[in-house]
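Morning. Coffee machine broken again, so started the prediction first thing and wrote up yesterday's gels while waiting. Chain of 395 residues, entered below exactly as on the submission form.
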Amino acid sequence: MAPYGRLHGMHSLRELRGRASARLDAYTDTAGLYAFGTYDRGPATRRDMLLPEDILAANLLSLRLRWHDVIPLFAEGNGPHQALLATMNAALQKLAVAAPFETYRDFATLERALVPLTEANTATEDVTGWTAVTVSKVLHRHLPQIVPIRDSYVRKFYGVPSGRVTLLWERLHDDIRRNLNWLEPLAAGYGTPDGRPLSLLRAADIIIWTNDGVSSTQVGDSPAVAALQQLTPTMWDKEGLEVAGWDGFTPLLTLNPAAVPDVPGVYVVVRDSTDEPAFLPDRPYRGSGRQATSKHFAYRTDQLAARWITESAVMNIGKADVSLRNRLDQYRKYGAGTGAAHKGGRSIWQLEDADALLISWVPAPSGVTGRELERGLIAAFRTAHGARPFANLRD
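Came back before lunch.
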């Protein structure tokens, strides 16, 4: 096993040991709103071949698979979708007899055992909407002892860049084996809803996932936690938000308010590029009246540059306590220079390409406030990027 100093930027399960039992208790409580009572209940029918319901069950772990992601897999033909299903079924059958993930003494041996999973991941390259993340969440439910769940929280916990699937496996394997002395007896005290032992892989995933910004923020009651689990994207960009169920993605500056729901909720401002833009010394849309005298509301360009977040397309996360429609109309008017009622998040208007920024939104579920969602999403963003979004100055 490699020394920890070589694994730059990673955390370890040992840091979470003191809270691990409490986190497993909370997640495995089937009276709560975590996915344990549903996703972790094993398939009731065939275990050697995936059925459509097995694919859709992965949505319980925050995926957004839709009909066009599932039906083509089971359609007649020999295209990329059918090839993907065939490789996942092959992995299901071959890995069913594999030893548990943590029992492999060296990673090279484990990597050879995971070749069927690698082949399934490779097959996603020709299928829109499918990635290694999707495959892992579909297959882990059937093979919790050997298939690691791959998501952004675990990846960032171990300091693994996007796309480095094998590196994530290596670091997870190394970390679990280093912590077997306490993790193994801890996991032995838990079982799945249908009576199977909880695998060490699943226990480690739960402990790490409940350490992320969504699940550790004080967002209030269970409906807020469940909503944040659903809405937090794997990647903070347009595609990631779409997969998580966000709507809109229309230019903010030309937004038609009638297209926005008149309900409480949250919104994000999205930029097409993650390249650093040019910063303007003042807002480009000066307007008249109160708006024309608000030059002191502009930030210095060095302040803007200091707050810039690399590799993120999300510029701002905001909330509407009463009406998304009214709040976003105020935001639009402020940028257009026809209103001065939305100074929050105003940094976006000093981007040279501000007129191309997109706005996306989602209504707040029943029993959840816009502020709870805003705070939880900002915390999740901080977990992913180490800071708030560019235009958010507070949590």
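Confidence is low (pLDDT under 50) at residues 1-9, 213-221. Going to sketch it on the whiteboard this afternoon.
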